[in-house]
Write a structure and sequence with these properties.
single chain; 5 helices; Alpha-Beta Plaits; 145 residues; four-stranded antiparallel beta sheet; alpha+beta
């Protein structure tokens, strides 16, 4: 009786291994989709429209604003420091410098809503107590870097 039970367990195990092997073989095959022409056309038009957009409105966090001698270098130094911190901490954020004569502004983020910006704002506020959330108009190509 015990041999019969062991045989059934082994048989079930082998059947399970075979099923897993077959299903993983199926998932490894190439899958093709038939997309309706109207969907393809809509996708093409969408891509063309975004290619024409030069700037978009975003929310960001302003860390500081500098003017005077070496203000550009000082702003870029802070940008580099912030981007290094973000990479080291695994934070998906981008610091950048924006020139608005006569000021070099250090800003962080490309947030679509003010609410999204608040998460990063709270992390930066301790290190940069003068930081605040503001709007910016950025070039799409700069955001996609």
């Amino acid at each position: 009786m015990q041999q019969l039970l062991s045989f059934r367990i082994v048989r079930c195990f082998l059947l399970l291994v075979l099923m897993i092997g077959v299903s993983s073989g199926i998932s490894a095959q190439n899958i093709t989709y038939d997309i309706e022409p109207s969907v393809q056309e809509a996708s093409r038009l969408h891509s063309e429209a975004w290619e024409k957009v030069e700037r978009v409105n975003i929310f960001c966090i302003q860390i500081g604003s500098f003017s005077g001698e070496n203000s550009g270098a000082k702003a870029q130094s802070i940008v580099n420091e912030l981007n290094t911190q973000f990479r080291n901490r695994g934070i998906n954020a981008q610091a950048y410098s924006a020139f608005d004569a006569p000021n070099h502004k250090v800003r962080v983020g490309n947030f679509s809503t003010k609410q999204e910006a608040y998460g990063m704002f709270h992390e930066l506020q301790e290190q940069y107590p003068g930081a605040f959330i503001t709007r910016d108009k950025r070039k799409v190509k700069d955001i996609l870097k």
